[in-house]
Amino acid sequence: MTAPDDPDAAYAALPRDAALAYRRAARLPEEVHTLDARQAAAISDLPVPRAANALQTLTRAGLLEQTSGTDQDQDHRKGFRFTAARIRLHAAHQTA
To answer: Going by C-beta distance under 8 Å and a sequence separation of 6 or more, which residues neighbour residue 83?
Structure first.
């Protein structure tokens, strides 16, 4: 998936849970390259199903991409990462 040309517009269109997961994912250490639904739930204080939905929403928005797992896998087995370094930086600026 390609990162959106306008991450501000993509971010502005996100539902609350997805926006929260996006901002919190940017706080993870740089060496954490992938995120799954359980991790997203833990950092966002969301139940795992809502965190999994947030990750899917972020993927559809082009802000994250799925790196592991298949559609048949349980949500906690799917890995996600930012689509580009500039998207992670954008997410970090939203935490301020």
So the answer is: 1, 2, 3, 62, 63, 64, 65
Tokens coding 17: 């849970």
Structural domains of the chain, count: 1
Per-residue confidence (pLDDT) for residue 75, from 0 to 100: 56
CATH number of the domain enclosing 52: 1.10.10.10
Q: How far apart are the first and last CA of the chain?
A: 27
User: What does the CA dihedral 21, 83, 34, 59 come to, rounded to 10 degrees?
Assistant: 50
Instruction: Tell me if 21 sits within 8 A of 55, measured CB to CB.
Output: yes
> Could you tell me the CA-to-CA distances from 70 to 25, 52, 67, 77 in Å, in that order?
21, 13, 9, 9
Residue 57 has pLDDT above 80, yes or no: yes
Q: Tens digit of pLDDT for each residue in 5-56? A: 899 999 999 999 999 999 999 999 888 888 999 999 999 999 999 999 999 9
